[in-house]
Amino acid sequence: MKIQKYCRLGIMSFILVILLIIPVRLAIAYHQSPQPQAILTLGAWIDREEMAAQIASLYPSLKVWVSSGTPPQLVRPIFQAAGVSDSRLYLDYRAVDTVTNFTTLISDFKQHGIQHLFLITSDFHMPRAKAIATLILGSQGIAFTPISVSSDQFKQETIVPIIRDIARSLLWIFTSHTGASFESVID
Question: Which end of the chain, N or C, is surrounded by fewer C-beta atoms within 10 Å?
């Protein structure tokens, strides 16, 4: 009985320590890189990619990642029209949902030494994206500055997908698995 109690206490303490490290890692990242070094757009909506192209034209040194967005033959002209060269554009189609938008790109961001990025998504989607980014990016010492794209067509997401994706983000932090199969169970 005492062993189970100490095991539970130990596990809870471990989880708490890990979760408390995230704000520290975010603070360090913001301090070391107060300005974004790249742009991450959660794709699938042309207006998000148009906003990313607009921001990229204002910051000509930033590389741009579009995660599981519009097909290349449609998205490349958007960036070309904004004067963003293909050499700055990374189109990545590995993600199958919002959690994997982040987890599939972590190694790319680390490889490029990115500690701070602009995060672009629709306003109705931003609360969930920020929750996931805080956990996944924060656990890796990558800060983010959110930019919401106005979307009058949709109302803000409910709390259910946010809670589900927080749980999936924690699962990824502890196991490197995203639980992508949970996506269809609760949607």
Answer: N
Give pTM, 2 decimals: 0.89
Q: Using N-to-C axis directions, what is the helix angle for 2-32 and 126-139, rounded to 10°? A: 100
Nearest to 56 by CA among 38, 70, 31: 38
CA distance 53 to 47: 10
Distance of alpha carbon 111 from alpha carbon 116, whole angstroms: 13
Length of the chain: 187
Tokens read off for 69? 């967005």
Single-letter residue type at 171:
L
Which one, of 142, 88, 86, 135, lies nearest residue 114 by Cα? 142
The pLDDT of residue 186 is above 50: no
Weakest mean pLDDT among 4-13, 81-90, 171-180: 4-13
SS (H, E, C) the chain: CHHHHHHHHHHHHHHHHHHHHHHHHHHHHHHHCCCCCEEEEECCCHHHHHHHHHHHHHCCCCEEEEECCCCHHHHHHHHHHCCCCHHHEEEECCCCCHHHHHHCCHHHHHHCCCCEEEEEEECCCHHHHHHHHHHHHHHCCCEEEEEEECCCCCCCCCHHHHHHHHHHHHHHHHHCCCCHHHHHHHC
Residue type at 1?
M
